[in-house]
Each structure stands twice: as C-alpha cells, then as structure tokens.
Design a protein that fits this description.
Number of strands: 11
Order of helices and strands: EEEEEEEEEEE
Radius of gyration: 13 Å
C-alpha cells in the first residue's frame, strides 16, 4: 500500500504562484510514476502533469505547459508542482496520483482557488 498526502493549496490572485507538495509513504519502492490531476466544480477530473521515476521524465497538459513545473525528490518520496502565472480557470481540487503497477493511489486533494 501507498499513502499520499498533499499540501500547499490555498487562495491566490490571478498571476500569482503556489507550490503543491505530495509526500508518499508505505511501499514507495514500487512507485514508477507520480503526477497531478485536478477537478473543477461540475467538471470531470483531468490530468495535469506527471513525472516518471526515477528517470525524471516529465509531461504536461497543454493547458499548463510553460506555467507549471513538476519535480521530484526521490530521497523524500515527494513530488512538487510549482504553479506560476495562475489563472482563474486553474481553480480546482488538485489530487496527487501514484502508479505502482498494477495499483494506482490517490491523495485526499488540496484546494487551489485563483481569484480574478
């Protein structure tokens, strides 16, 4: 089993920045990739970004490319999402995700609200 705990959400004005953190515990050695999803009110959950572990290969949704940066600290089993130039449409609950094939794990989510 893997447990994920997110932190770092909050309220920020448009154009501002936030950094989300996701710490993994448990059988972390089995994790091959971690990433972030988000879900806005009334919308489906959407993929935001992911990083392959331990090679560190990163991918981004087009909507956040060049604004968000995902990084990992393998020693701490932690993944970060640096979010810059935030827009009101980035408002959502952000969920951390970890893949440990064949299993997939989710954090409890952290709210990000961007005011205009």
């Amino acid at each position: 089993q893997v447990q994920l705990v997110e932190s770092g959400g909050g309220l920020v004005q448009a154009g501002g920045s936030l950094r989300l953190s996701c710490s993994a515990s448990g059988r972390t050695i089995r994790i091959s990739a971690m990433g972030w999803f988000r879900q806005a009110p009334g919308k489906e959950r959407e993929w935001v970004s992911a990083v392959n572990l331990p090679r560190g290969i990163t991918r981004y949704a087009n909507s956040v490319k060049d604004r968000f940066t995902i990084s990992s600290d393998n020693a701490k089993s932690t993944v970060y999402l640096q979010m810059n130039s935030l827009k009101p449409e980035d408002t959502a609950v952000y969920y951390c995700n970890a893949r440990a094939t064949p299993n997939e794990y989710w954090g409890q989510g952290t709210q990000v609200t961007v005011s205009s």
